[in-house]
Amino acid sequence: MRQEDIWDVETAQRYDTPGTGMFAADVVGPTVDRLAELSAGGRALEFAIGTGRVAVPLAERGVPVTGIELSRPMVDRLRTKVDEATIPVVVGDMSTAVAPGSYTLVYLVFNTIANLLTQAEQVACFRNAARHLTPGGRFVIELWVPELRTLPPGREATVCHSEPGYIGLDTYDVLNQHVVSHHFRFSDGRQAELFRTPHRYIWPAELDLMAQLAGFELQSRHADWAGSDFTAESPSHVSVYRLPPHGTRRT
Q1: 3 state SS of 195
Q2: pLDDT tens readout for residues 168-209
Q3: Measuring CA to CA, how many Å separate 107 from each of 8, 20, 140, 191, 203?
């Protein structure tokens, strides 16, 4: 499953769920508030900008936003909301693509660094963020914590979420740190719709080492965008990495 094949026209058309799920005001609001603060009055670059769930409201807050996005259909969907002059987008891989200019903030939300399926690509993503940042600039990652404690010995799958009309299953390859999320949607009939996405999961400590390899230091880690304490029970985290204010960056 290639990412460019997964995020096709059909997926882009149904991706947005205005007012609900990850588009709910209580999800987007704290995200935008925190990113606006971290931009420190400068320009922001979003890796995997998608349809603009975060970028559009962040730009409306007065933060100049540029994006990098692998999926052309997702960019086309973004273009129904804002034009190229408002939010420029470079079509390409976030681990290698270059956006013009420099930024005080690069951000990568909603677990999307895990869409890069090798450790080398994930390290390259950190280095690409560093290349785009001014001294003292920040790279922000929102990422889930691998839920291996819910996986009984000898079993390869676990239910990640269920609600009426939907069930989500994660199948794990613990040798390679791979997980495939299977999203089943169904109604009262006999047919179900399946959407699958592959990921490479990353432990927080491994993420921190990737950051160090790119010249970052960990500035903060919280359980959510509102700044709740990160604990051993937290299912996800928002980690802020910062480049030194001065000196040589390892890129």
Answers
A1: strand
A2: 999 999 999 999 999 999 988 888 999 899 999 999 999 999
A3: 23, 22, 5, 38, 18
